[in-house]
Amino acid sequence: LKNYDKEAGTNIVEAFKRATFENEFATKAHLSEQEKQLVHSLLDVYEFIKLSSRDAAGYEEAITGTIYGNDVLIDGEEVIGLGKATAQVRARSSNLAEPAGKASASKTKLPSYSSVIDMSREILSQTKGDKVLLTQELAKNIQSAGANKALAGLILLAQLRRLDNILEDERFSSLVTKDLQKNNLQAQVQGMRINPAAPQYVARFLKIVLEDKLKLSHQDAISFGKKLVAILSIEGEKYKSIISDNKWKM
Q: Residue 96 pLDDT > 70, yes or no?
């Protein structure tokens, strides 16, 4: 890790720089395949714990609080003052049930960000960050529409730098293939097979999972998607194009 910090820096390391270090280190140290995998897993965890809870990639929700007797909304490092009336309305509205209706009845409520993060930590503990186990868990929770666990799985895969290439897995790429065929976009199926990590296919996958499978409202899906995009953008600037003007860029 000292060598890694010296060569790649102590900030979050881009994928290419990290891969270069791993290859050079393995060659110099004459590592076996098993040892290479151990180093890779160690760096996965090391990069994961660099993600601050105050950073978008660390995924912390905005919270209300009181500073010097004044009600405030704390969003990351930004502190927004709330008037007494506004604070009272926020407190009361949180206790009001959402009006019944077709739209609300058919949509899943977005779990609190803190509960998603708690679940991601639980999944990380259970799977030890193993990609096979993580993707098995995600596939199961998508199928059963287990929103909290599925969202936690997506966050965890993104933080471990394994969400961008998720469409290399047939269980997930088949969802996109069916959607493309349903929308008469057969030509794009071949494009996805050639370049499954392209932003437009990742965007379609996230839209399908969040809105179609987990039944989140478009607004909630986009809100959660932006958190994933913030993490994916560490992997590559191209992923910033997944969401634009609150729409999926598919």
A: no
The angle that helices 186-194 and 199-207 make with each other, rounded to 10 degrees, is 120
Distance of CA 113 to the CA centre of its chain: 12
Enter the pTM of the model: 0.62
Give residue 237's pLDDT: 84
* pLDDT tens digits for range 40-68: 888 888 887 776 554 445 544 555 566 66
Q: Are 48 and 163 in contact (CB under 8 A)?
A: no
Q: Which amino acid is at 200?
A: Q
Residues recorded for the chain: 250
| CA dist., res. 206 & res. 37, Å (int) | 29
SS3 248: strand
- Whether the pLDDT of residue 77 is over 90: the answer is no
d(CA 105, CA 126): 33
Dist. CA 148–CA 224, nearest whole Å: 12
CA–CA dist 78, 210 (Å, integer): 28
Share of the chain above pLDDT 70, in %: 78
DSSP 8-state code for residue 58: G
* Residue 123 and residue 104 in contact, taking contact as beta carbons nearer than 8 Å: no
